[in-house]
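Before a computer can learn anything about folding, someone has to put a protein's shape into writing. The three-dimensional part falls to structure tokens, numbers that each stand for a local backbone shape. The protein below has been through that process, and both of its lines are reproduced in full.
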Amino acid sequence: MAPTSTPQTPFGRVLTAMVTPFAADGALDLDGAQRLAAHLVDAGNDGLILNGTTGESPTTSDAEKTELVRAVLEAVGDRAHIVAGVGTNDTRHSIELARAAEQAGAHGLLTVTPYYNKPPQEGLYRHFSAIADATELPVMLYDIPGRSGVPINTETIVRLAEHPRIVANKDAKGDLGRASWAISRSGLAWYSGDDMLNLPLLSVGAVGFVSVVSHVVTPELRSLLEAYLTGDVQKATEIHQRLLPVFTGMFRTQGVITTKAALALQGRSAGPLRLPLVELSVEETAQLKIDLAAGGVQL
């Protein structure tokens, strides 16, 4: 059974978009995934997003995606919401992944905007609706036009929100004005998908975060969130400002690369990356150490 949720927070409040650990030979490291998942939940995460871009989904097979979901569920599925990324730019393939995730026991689905083929808004509506129709699992949309090339327009979000299983949106659009209107009109549970905007998005109605930097600062993000929710906006702002070097440093280059490097610096290696991603250079690693230390991360 999934942990308790509410319509306002269907997947909890703080979730990590988890990297996928690999062994030295590049194979899937299921033991490492279970250890990392347990560490993240112990640190205060309500949920984990598996098989997203931060999980190197473009270079993992469908079978590996299913194995990962099963392994993480076995490790922490009674303590955290396990949400499986199933978005692709092929609706039929996404439906297959959604059904496989449901069969593996996932508690929910993350569906990114189809990328590269740049469908019109009606295509987005039909794509997301078809995935939501395919299983009984709750769905979180993922709006990230910087990667997909196409935003989910507010009108489309409002239409999609009418589907009983489309319950949330991960917002990486970087537009607080559009977010404000979409939150107000759709009623979806809104999650920040851009760590630098975690606090600003709370101010316009977001309920929580789907974070990458939470690999190393989950307790701080929880403190920020709890301070804001209890009305201590000054404390929340202070935490946000202390974390600015981390927000910046973890995205100086591609986020998976820096996250695996940061974990290695903490003695929690998640293994190598799969091409076309590559490890940080010596100079980039030195800069990451400076950024993390400036944000109070213990190395």
